[in-house]
Write a structure and sequence with these properties.
Number of helices: 11
CATH superfamily: Aldolase class I
Distance between the termini: 37 Å
Strand content: 5-15%
Helix content: 40-55%
Order of helices and strands: EHEHEHEHEHEHEHEHHHH
Largest sheet: 8 strands, parallel
CATH class: Alpha Beta
CATH architecture: Alpha-Beta Barrel
Shape: globular
Structural class: alpha/beta
Length: about 300
């Protein structure tokens, strides 16, 4: 039986070469950094990985490379979202071949709040991937369906293969608590998302883990350890230190993550494919001021 997934599970970004191609060598450095940072597991690919910009071939190659490098050192959750159950199942198969212990699938935006349709979608995936633990990712529109806690619980009740929920609709803490209250012992846990911007509220309400981006994985691992050791005051102090960076990350997403990883010596560039606002000189100056106060060590 698979051990419960709990703790800090960062979603790795997809690094690109100067020519704009996925860079498996750089991804290997990120895997090693995550492990050395003390995380409990790794997620790839997800929204923080610019997954929608990757071709099927690129995605499969990066997942395979990650599995080889990780080599079972930490649990690996493969992101396998698609509006088509058969495509999700194929992505899960690629992840399982690379060593994934579970698969994260977003509740499709197109099915909305239709519980029967969403349950049918996940049941179809489960039928094609027997024995694989599924994680229902509940993200807000326009990316996800933004399911209510009651809808999430109802879907989980109808699809036993769903063992976890990644909850990132606002207000995240309330939704974590309401899902847990509604499902009882029906699933193995609820993890927070939303970049760990609400992590303490989520933990206080029973979340078993968090899935932030990678750039400060060492701080998130330390925060997790402080909280669970009972040093709640120090955990809160560290949380408050991270918030200025995470508010910037909420706006600039992949560009902020890659900029910080570049500053820490883990990436050669901050090239992205995904759309979104690009920082100007004022933004970069603000990021530098935040990073100076955080005093992040080089990861080289």
């Amino acid at each position: 039986m698979m051990a419960q997934l709990a703790g800090v599970y960062p979603v790795l970004p997809t690094p690109f070469t100067s020519e704009g191609k996925p860079d498996p060598d750089a991804l290997m450095r990120l895997v090693d950094f995550a492990v050395s940072a003390g995380v409990d597991g790794i997620v790839y690919p997800g929204m923080a990985s610019e997954v929608e910009t990757l071709s099927a071939e690129e995605r499969a190659a990066m997942v395979a490379a990650l599995g080889v490098r990780l080599a079972g050192r930490r649990p690996f959750i493969v992101g396998a979202s698609s509006p088509e159950p058969t495509l999700s199942a194929a992505r899960i198969a690629e992840g399982v071949s690379a060593g994934a212990v579970a698969a994260m699938v977003m509740a499709p935006h197109g099915l909305g709040q239709d519980v029967a349709a969403q349950a049918g979608f996940f049941a179809a995936i489960a039928a094609e991937t027997p024995g694989v633990a599924l994680m229902l990712q509940n993200a807000p529109p326009p990316g996800g369906a933004g399911l209510s806690p009651q809808a999430v619980a109802a879907i989980c009740a109808q699809v036993p293969a769903i063992r976890y929920v990644k909850e990132e609709t606002l207000p995240c803490g309330q939704h974590v608590a309401r899902i847990l209250a509604a499902v009882g012992q029906g699933i193995d846990g609820v993890l927070g998302g939303a970049g760990a911007r609400f992590i303490l509220d989520e933990l206080a309400r029973g979340a078993c883990g968090t899935m932030p981006a990678l750039e400060i994985a060492d701080l998130h691992a330390r925060l997790w350890a402080l909280w669970h050791s009972g040093d709640r005051a120090e955990a809160r102090a560290l949380y408050e230190r991270t918030l200025p960076l995470l508010t910037q990350q909420m706006v600039f997403r992949w560009r902020l993550t890659k900029h910080v990883l570049m500053r820490r010596g883990l990436l050669a560039n901050s090239i992205t494919r995904a759309a979104g606002p690009a920082p100007d000189e004022g933004d970069l100056a603000e990021w530098d001021a935040i990073l100076e106060r955080l005093a992040l060590p080089s990861a080289r």
